[in-house]
Amino acid sequence: MPFGTGVLVDELDFSDDKLLQGRTFSYSDTQRYHVGANYLQLAINKPKTRVATNQYGGQMDYLDGDKGSENPHINYEPSSIDGLKEAPKSGKDYTPHVEGQVMRKKISLLK
């Protein structure tokens, strides 16, 4: 069962164990890799308050169709849910001015 060591009950804190601190630092990434982006929907990891992760559906979505916890601000497009849209480009594109020669040459370390 994936249980995040960084998810603590109030009044508890980490020990000085370096291994535990290292695992706590990387555990969220490990859960996203093994369980999927919706690992916070597992009962053991689910917070008691509303979560706004901007994630919807996808692999390992445990709450498919649960309208009470959906965030309307989807962070990808195209989306059938009408989430965020990329703003249109404005202004001119920036093209840097560079002078010189481009060449491939062996660099001599000794003079």
From TrEMBL:
Q: Identify which cofactors the protein needs according to its UniProt entry.
A: heme
Q: Where is the composition biased (Basic and acidic residues)?
A: 83-96
Q: Where is the Catalase core domain?
A: 3-82
**Gene Ontology CC:** cytoplasm
- One short Pfam name that applies is Catalase
Q: What is its EC number?
A: 1.11.1.6
For region Disordered, the annotated ranges are 79-98
List the GO biological process terms: hydrogen peroxide catabolic process; response to hydrogen peroxide
Where does the source fall among the domains of life? Bacteria
GO MF terms listed in the record are:
catalase activity; heme binding
Query: Which InterPro entries does the entry mention?
Result: Catalase, Catalase_core, Catalase_haem_BS, Catalase_sf
Annotated function: Decomposes hydrogen peroxide into water and oxygen; serves to protect cells from the toxic effects of hydrogen peroxide.
Cited PANTHER family: CATALASE (PTHR11465), CATALASE-2 (PTHR11465:SF23)
Q: What is this protein called?
A: catalase
The scientific name of the source species is Nostoc sphaeroides CCNUC1
